[in-house]
Design goal:
By secondary structure, the protein is mostly helical. It has 17 helices and no strands. About 80% of the residues lie in helices and about 0% in strands.
Length: about 400
């Protein structure tokens, strides 16, 4: 902790004041790029599932359990981490977590069996858990309170780019060389980001940050947001865990076209994430209704006519737009309505997100094994439709 923070209330207040605009934007850009790398590391096995399974001699269904293990670690660790790290300056914490994350990516790249592969994923999951517990409040602290809804959306802008540029390029790189190459690249990027975080972020006591508590705490709204989150995340993962074999075996697309389809989905997600910041502050409930409704429509189209290549491509593009709108709104409402500390709210959000991912991957594996790939979007559509009901029936509450 810096001397200025420890010297007294007045000095402490100055230490955590919003940064000058230029420095704040630079720090937010580093955090957004970190989110890009972290999300790419999480979703990369989706695009490389077949390559990894063939190289290691295991089935695609068994390889899909990597998603389950990753999510389980995040479910178990997010809330304890929020308690353990609440007094550690975010600059130090985030730089250390990204170094750990890079170590996990290196271990995956060097693995020759499932044991090393799972160990690397677990290490990456712990590093990711630390990041998402504190990233939202850290980014919000950099700017005045009146723009923090937009700041959260800009923070998530990098996560959308993970699919637009990161995933297609990584899949192309893996096909041109080896599935290990993108993980080596992630390890190098992770170390670079750890250094950038140490340079750009200020050092201050987390309890002194202006975003450590929500401006309009409401347990009723927060619990409803978590319920919506659980349903939409499960509905996403049920389909997305096996999206590569679905697009090739059901939609009839060639393996070389799959990166373009996933890139289109993520490109529409970037558009959604960039525009949603303009309305999420003023109409969060209506924005969430639009996002979840479009997501249900996308999976419904895939369930009805997913064997038609153009329909499948269009449904994926619509899903990317819907997903970005929904995620940005859920995060913004978490930051606004968490009933306690925002880092604990973020931890509960992360726990719910990854519980949904874990259930979704298991449900996807069961549907895949018993009914076949074509039934995956049916299961996803049912879950997202249930989330839409929760959104629509939300009562208007003054906070």
């Amino acid at each position: 902790m810096s001397a200025s923070i420890a010297s007294g209330p007045a000095a402490s207040a100055a230490a955590f004041a919003p940064l000058p605009a230029g420095r704040g934007r630079n720090a937010l850009a580093v955090l957004s790029c970190t989110g890009l790398a972290i999300v790419l590391g999480e979703i990369l096995p989706f695009g490389l599932l077949s390559l990894m399974a063939d190289d290691l001699g295991v089935s695609e269904a068994r390889m899909g359990l990597l998603v389950t293990a990753f999510a389980l670690v995040l479910v178990v660790t997010s809330v304890p981490i929020a308690r353990w790290v609440k007094n550690i300056p975010r600059r130090h914490l985030l730089a250390t977590s990204m170094s750990m994350w890079a170590l996990g990516a290196s271990l995956i790249a060097l693995s020759h069996g499932l044991t090393e592969l799972f160990a690397g994923r677990i290490i990456m999951a712990v590093g990711q858990a630390v990041f998402w517990v504190v990233a939202m409040a850290t980014a919000a602290d950099l700017f005045p309170a009146e723009v923090r809804g937009q700041v959260v959306a800009r923070l998530m802008f990098g996560t959308s780019l993970a699919g637009v540029a990161g995933l297609p390029l990584s899949i192309w790189w893996a096909h041109a060389t080896s599935w290990r190459a993108p993980f080596f690249g992630l390890a190098a990027v992770g170390l670079a980001l750890a250094i950038a975080i140490a340079i750009t972020l200020p050092t201050y006591a987390p309890c002194d940050g202006g975003a450590d508590h929500a401006p309009a705490p409401s347990q009723r709204i927060f619990v409803r947001v978590l319920c919506i989150e659980a349903l939409v995340v499960t509905g996403w993962i049920v389909v997305y865990t096996y999206i590569t074999p679905y697009l090739t075996d059901v939609a009839g697309l060639s393996p070389g076209v799959v990166p373009l389809v996933l890139g289109t989905a993520s490109a529409s997600g970037v558009v959604g994430m960039w525009t949603v910041g303009r309305c999420v502050n003023h109409a969060p409930r209506q924005t969430m209704t639009v996002g979840v409704g479009l997501m249900a429509l996308a999976w419904g189209a895939l369930a009805i006519a997913g064997s038609v290549p153009l329909v499948a491509w269009g449904a994926m593009a619509l899903f990317g737009l819907a997903w970005s709108i929904t995620v940005a709104t859920m995060l913004t409402r978490t930051a606004r309505h968490a009933p306690g500390r925002t880092d604990m709210g973020a931890a509960l959000y992360s726990t719910t997100f990854n519980a949904g991912a874990m259930v979704g991957s298991l449900a996807g594996a069961a549907v895949f094994a018993s009914l076949g790939l074509s039934w995956l979007p049916v299961a996803g559509a049912v879950l997202v439709a249930a989330a839409a009901v929760v959104v629509i029936t939300e009562p208007r509450v003054r906070t």
